[in-house]
Design brief:
CATH architecture of the largest domain: Alpha-Beta Complex
Number of helices: 16
Order of helices and strands: EHEHEHEEHEEHHHEEHEHHEHHHHHH
Helix content: 40-55%
CATH topology of the largest domain: Spore Coat Polysaccharide Biosynthesis Protein SpsA, Chain A
Largest sheet: 11 strands, mixed
CATH class of the largest domain: Alpha Beta
Shape: globular
Strand content: 15-25%
Length: 348
């Protein structure tokens, strides 16, 4: 088997058949589809029943997306592994394009791609990656040429360029950039299954950060590639975690940013040799994350001491936020008004 596509799912009966169909519609057929049902309580098992003879279906107790992906990776037999969220879709050429690149360049362990985004109200963005990771590409002016050390036109690599006559494959060691900035769309990745012997599985303790941490380990150990062609379609809808109601959204932001902090500390700060060599860049990244935790804590209105702690850490790493720190001593209503004004003025 050439490629294993792992689809973790939890209560996505409305969308999962479309996800499976997008894999069956690939231009190459040397694929195994592994659906890991992470304890769904809706009609998932019922709606995918017609597909059960053509897929590997694994029912598991609810343990989160990383837990489900790990089960899928353990069951995979393909030379390459790719993921697909059960509410998203593949372009028909995705598997062929990425396997061709991995076949052509044996020194890269993983290849990611551009991604498109859509919703059922008609929203469509074909090249969505730079918007998805706007703080890196717009806020910090990163380009693919700055992130990757090598690039080549798809046609010059001896691959079929299709309609992407001027699109490129980028390659290089990107760990130094990636630990400081989110620059790739993790779900578009395809990687060699044998690297799991070195990097291990996804870490289930991280929440909304497990994919970043997994990819970070790959980038720390291997050269990786990127194709400037969208192969993955991200579906935006009301039931996504990121689209939770306002109050819940603040809690999710705090929890996810706290995960990012622990990941960056683990792979940057606690790796003392690496930290000494990259101290200025790592201090800036740590300061940014502490600030990104402090602001929603202030907006939440609970325990301003926690916000002051993180703002104090931001100052420790060289980026004092004196105005925000002073705000933590003001009444909740004043904090909320001030934060809203700063957000509107884009000064936060």
């Amino acid at each position: 088997m050439k490629t294993s596509v792992i689809i973790p799912t939890y209560n996505r009966g409305k969308y999962i058949c479309q996800a499976i169909e997008s894999v069956f519609q690939q231009t190459t057929k040397d694929i195994e589809v592994i659906v890991v049902d992470d304890g769904s309580t809706d009609n998932t098992k019922e709606v995918i029943r017609p597909y059960l003879t053509n897929i590997k279906y694994i029912s598991a107790e609810n343990g989160g997306a990383a837990h489900a992906r790990n089960i899928g990776m353990e069951a995979a037999t393909g030379e390459y592994i790719a993921f697909l969220d059960s509410d998203d879709l593949y372009y028909p050429y995705k598997i062929k394009l990425q396997t061709d690149v991995l076949d052509k360049f044996p020194d890269i362990a993983m290849v990611c791609t551009e991604a498109s985004a859509f919703n059922e109200a008609g929203y469509w963005d074909e090249y969505h990656l730079k918007k998805y990771h706007e703080p890196a590409y717009v806020g910090k002016g990163l380009t693919y040429e700055k992130i990757f050390s090598e690039n080549i036109l798809i046609k010059d690599a001896g691959l079929d360029p299709g309609t992407w006559e001027n699109k490129r494959i980028y390659m290089g060691n990107i760990f130094d950039t990636y630990i400081k900035n989110l620059v790739v769309f993790t779900m578009s990745a395809m990687f060699r299954r044998n690297i799991l012997n070195t990097i291990g599985m996804q870490n289930t303790k991280y929440w909304l950060g497990e994919e970043f941490e997994f990819m970070l380990r790959i980038c720390k150990n291997y050269k990786v590639g990127f194709i400037d062609v969208p192969t993955y379609k991200v579906r935006y809808h009301d039931n996504q975690i990121s689209n939770s109601r306002k109050k819940e959204g603040i809690r999710i932001t705090i929890k996810s940013e706290t995960s990012y902090l622990e990941i960056v500390e683990t792979h940057g700060l606690n790796d003392r040799e690496y930290y000494v060599k990259h101290k200025d860049a790592m201090d800036l990244r740590l300061a940014e994350i502490h600030k990104s935790i402090a602001i929603p804590l202030m907006a939440q209105g609970k325990d301003p001491k926690r916000a002051r702690f993180h703002l104090g850490k931001s100052a420790f790493y060289g980026k004092p936020e004196n105005f925000l720190f002073a705000l933590t001593f003001t009444p909740y209503v004043i904090r909320r008004i001030a934060l809203k004004i700063l957000s509107v003025l884009n000064l936060r």
